[in-house]
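Subject: for your reference before the review

Hello V.,

The reviewers asked for a structural picture of the protein, and I figured it would be easier to keep everything in one thread rather than splitting it across files. Below is the amino acid sequence we used in the manuscript, unchanged from the supplementary table.
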Amino acid sequence: MDLYSMIEAGGRMKFEVTGEDLVMFADRLIAKAQEMKEIEIATRPKDETYLSAAETAELCHVSKTTLWTWEKAGYLVPAHVGKRKCYAKSEIDRLLAGEKGTLRNPK
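And here is what came back from the structure prediction:
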C-alpha cells in the first residue's frame, strides 16, 4: 500500500517514509491535480467571455476591494493570465442572479 492510499484510508497513523515514498506521493498529488484541472478545462464553455477586474467591479457596482474579498471567500474566483485577473462572465452572471453553487471554494 502506498502513502497516498494509506492517507485516503483515514485514521490516525504514524509513518516512517523514505525519500522514494515522498517522491511517489508528490507524483500522485501532481497527477491528481492535473486530472482535476483537465476536467475543469473540459467543462468550461468554449465561447466564455472574460472581463478584467475593473470591468467586473463596474458591472457588479462594487470596488476592487470587494472583488478581492469575494475571491478570498470563494464567491467569484478569477482566472489568472500572467499577473492579470480575469473573471468569467458566466460566473459573474450566476453571482448576480443569486444562484446557488457560486461558492466554488468554500472555507
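For the response letter, the relevant points are probably these. The CA atoms of residues 72 and 85 lie 13 Å apart. The first helix runs from residue 3 to 9.

Happy to draft the paragraph if you're swamped.

O.
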